[in-house]
Design brief:
The protein is of the alpha/beta class and about 130 residues long. It contains three helices and seven strands, in the order βαβαββαβββ. The protein has a seven-stranded mixed sheet with strand order 1-7-6-2-5-4-3, covered by helices on one side. Strand 3 and strand 4 form a beta hairpin. It is globular and about 40 Å long. The termini are close together.
């Protein structure tokens, strides 16, 4: 499916609706350029599950929200081996929902089955195309 987001609120709302389709054990790859809205998308998912404040885990690599969501930011990783060495891949096969930004940097260690969300910028600064 493809959606047009014209604001951060639209992105948040689309994500909140998408969260209805998620189950424990899902691994979701979030793809998009810097500033595309990946973290805003995670905020919408967390809101659906009534989980706390979401911030980008860029410096920590991983933030945990409640007993349900693992939010990864793999921007600073260069390969899957780094993710494995940090223990990040240990959670991919558990009963949490894993939301992974910059997953392309660790593609070689991702589970075989992942869900993909693509957030694409357009020529309009606040507009995004969101592909689910």
């Amino acid at each position: 499916m493809q959606y047009i987001s014209r604001s951060e609120q639209d992105t948040f709302d689309i994500a909140k609706k998408y969260a209805e389709t998620l189950s424990r054990g899902d691994v979701v790859v979030l793809s998009g350029d810097l500033g595309a809205g990946k973290t805003e998308f995670v905020k919408g998912i967390a809101a659906y599950f009534n989980l706390g404040d979401v911030v980008s885990p860029t410096y920590a690599y991983l933030n945990v929200y409640g007993d349900l969501i693992y939010h990864y930011d793999c921007y600073r990783l260069s390969c899957g081996e780094e993710a494995e060495n940090l223990g990040l891949t240990d959670y991919f096969y558990g009963d949490k929902i894993c939301l992974i930004e910059w997953a392309e940097n660790i593609a070689d260690v991702l589970p075989e089955k992942v869900k993909t969300v693509r957030i694409l910028k357009t020529d309009v600064p606040t507009e995004r195309i969101i592909e689910l």
